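Encode chain A's predicted structure.
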Amino acid sequence: MAAARAKAAELEVVRGKRAALFFAAVAIMLGLPLWWKTTETYRASLPYLEINELNTMELRLMVRIRLVFARGSLFPDHLDELPETSVQEQEIPLKYKMKIKFLYRNEYRVASEREEEALSLGSVQEAEAMLSESQPQDEGSLTVYIIDEESSLLPEDMMSYIGHKRTAFTRGIVRHHAFSVIQQYVKEIIDTMSLAEDVLATALADHLSEDNWSSDNWRPLKSSLGYEITFSLLNPDPKSHEVHWDIEGAVRHYVQPFVDALSIAGNISVDSQILYYAMLGVNPRFDAASSSYYLAAHSLPHVINPVESRLGSSAASLYPVLNFLLYVPELAHSPLYIQDKDGAPVATNAFHSPRWGGIMVYNVDPKAYNGSELPVKVEVDMVQVMEVFLAQLRLLFGIPEPQMPPYCLFLGPPSGGLMTWEVDRLLWARTLENLATATATLTSLAQLLGKISNIVIKDDVASEVYRAVAAVQKAAEELASGRLVSAFTASQEAVTSSERAFFDPSLLHLLYFPDDQKFAIYIPLFLPMAVPILLSLVKIFLEMRKSWKKPEKRD
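Encoded structure for chain A:
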């Protein structure tokens, strides 16, 4: 009976050991991996290596230049010296992580009969119009016609001409010189019409160090998919002034050609409004010598904030808003003038603010008050106003006034205020800016996700990152091939995809849920079950160790 009880007790102990081992095996081999897998953070794979390579990539900007020699511009012996093509490389000395190089692909040929007919016209404007219609040119390309040294197409005191299109003319000054003289002289024209180093530095202002960019320099408007332009008439004293402005006609004749020229760079909308009792917020000072009021240069930054609260356009817009304010001063502060830093009155009586817009003060003619009842009817001279606003628009978009070479004929911009080759320069600048922005965004995102391992990376975020990297690479390839428009489009896609990935809301869900908090939550659940199993395993291990030592003592 005792032996049976002892055997039953022994079987019960063995059964308990097997149960403990079974529970331990299930918990370790099945439960722990299952728990770890179900609580882990899902992270789709990202192209970290490709993102790191973007910072060290080399951007090569291909500029196609056609040099067309007219009859009499070269001796017949020199025609044999003309190569079909030549490529010149120039590196831009900017302290930027990406190397930027210009590749000038020069194509040489003799003028055709149609071109000779155009070059024999009476003026360069007619010749340029005829050549532009017969031979459309791609974005980013230039054509320079080398005409006869004695040609009457240019005035006698002018050696070259730069037009509105992608066309320029220069005299064949190398009749008695080597062919290399043409290349040196044509280089001055190309540097004017192509992407210059200062334009490039302006576009990359937010990505350059202080050694390349000073805080005092002009920072243009950032690249965007669209822009909104708002013209506002501020009439703070409607009891004294009844102001009328033909803003619809002014926009149609002056602003719309400018907008049409920039349509390739983004969608631009234009609207207008009239604000009554809108004050500048700064009290002008009275000058007894001139019996007028003035705003000093140091007080101009304080003018914008009080007025901006009345505009209300920036809060309802998804795109950057450019504000152009026409301010008619009240009768008590009229006439009102703006002074520069030296205390001299500004010729345009206007000022502008980077990435915001401009303000122009429009004074009423003092003679209008003689014998007139209030309110005085004021008819705004929109030609004068729009000349100022268009000049400010150029500055805001980062389009500086072109610096012409010596003895170069330039008849000024067209009615829209922009030359075709200026739009090309803007596309180059915007493309480089977009690539720099997309690269910086992807690099920051990769560093963030690399440091914080518990952030969820969904498949749609990863796809946006892959799409952005591919778009950057495509834009670089298109720039090297001279396809400016497709390069700009790819750079816009790169910025859009990179910002979608960076600002995706899913990246913030587990940002403040580290691994130690995960263990703090699950340990109270698992510990009551794990303690008996662990104690049983320890007891089994001690008994097995004791049984291993007994045979050694017998020996």
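The first helix runs from residue 2 to 39.
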